[in-house]
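Reviewers of the previous submission asked for a worked example of the structure-prediction workflow described in the proposal, so we include one complete record here. The input consisted solely of the amino acid sequence. No template or homolog information was supplied to the procedure at any stage.
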Amino acid sequence: MDGEAASRGPGGRVAAPPGGQTHLSPVDALCVSLILEDCLHQLEILGCIAPCAPAKIPGIRTSTDQEFRDAPGQDPIPSDTLRKVQADRRFAEAVIAETLQEVRAGGTFQSLLSAVASEKEKRDAHDAAIAREEEARKRVAALQKEIYDLKKEKENELQRLEEEITTLKDELQEAKARSAMEGRYARRMAQARLSQAARRREHVELALRDEVQTLGSELDNENRVHMDIDTFLRRHYADLSEQLEFWMEKYDHDLEAKQQELNNLKATHASDLAHLQDLARQYSEFEAVVIEDRLEREAERKRLEQEELELRCTVKIQAWWRGVMVRRGLGQYKAPKKAKKGKKGKKAKKGGKKKK
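From that input alone, the workflow returned the following structure tokens.
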């Protein structure tokens, strides 16, 4: 029993050898074989008694432990649960039998590890499927909520459209009634206009008849006037034809006279042109003489002005020179010399210098 307990891990499962080895020693292989054989016998017994009185098998964990732990007096276990228990039992029995053969044959339990790994993969796949199913349920719930909201929105929109349809029907009825009233009013107005137009047409017809009679009398008058005017115009045309012949003859006569007069004027113009050219030549000669005379007079004027200027300058120079001679006592304005010069003379001379 101590070896059996040592070979079991937590939860009653067989513990793997240390270091992750799959080969057992002969002693361990014998212990494991005994344990597996005992488990196999218990599973066979469970298979025989499970349909009538399912009981918990020590050391074996199945999915029906919760049902086996139910208190007496509760409802019987459902058939689906019993079938699942039987399937798990058969799977465990097959795995243990195969492991027992492998342990007895070679001291290994690789088939057990493979079965556990395969079962773990199935469990993971089952959990993933459950998670996907849960996600799908959430998605379905969200879609159902969206469908409900959309349905609610469409119902509200349908109700609004029905209200609009009702309103439009009322407006249509009102429009029909209004159009019927307007139609009756239009027919009455048309009848009134037709009667008014008929009366107006009668008045216009009478007025046109009177106008036709008036125009007939005016047409007769116009015809008489036209005949008178035609006679007058024919007579006037004959007079104008005679006047045209007269004026044509007068035109020819006047044209000859004017042509002769034009020839005379051309001859006179030629003689006048020659005389004008002669006068122009004489004018040019006289103009040259006049210009020459003007130049001579201008030169004479400038010469006289120059002589007058020189004379004034000469007079000024002579006056200045006389003043200099008088002030300095030069020439004929020189003072007579004295034999003796006294003090008085010196003083007088000094006084004279001061006056200067």
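Helices lie at 2-7, 26-49, 65-68, 79-106, 110-328, 343-355. We consider this example representative of the routine output the project will generate in years two and three.
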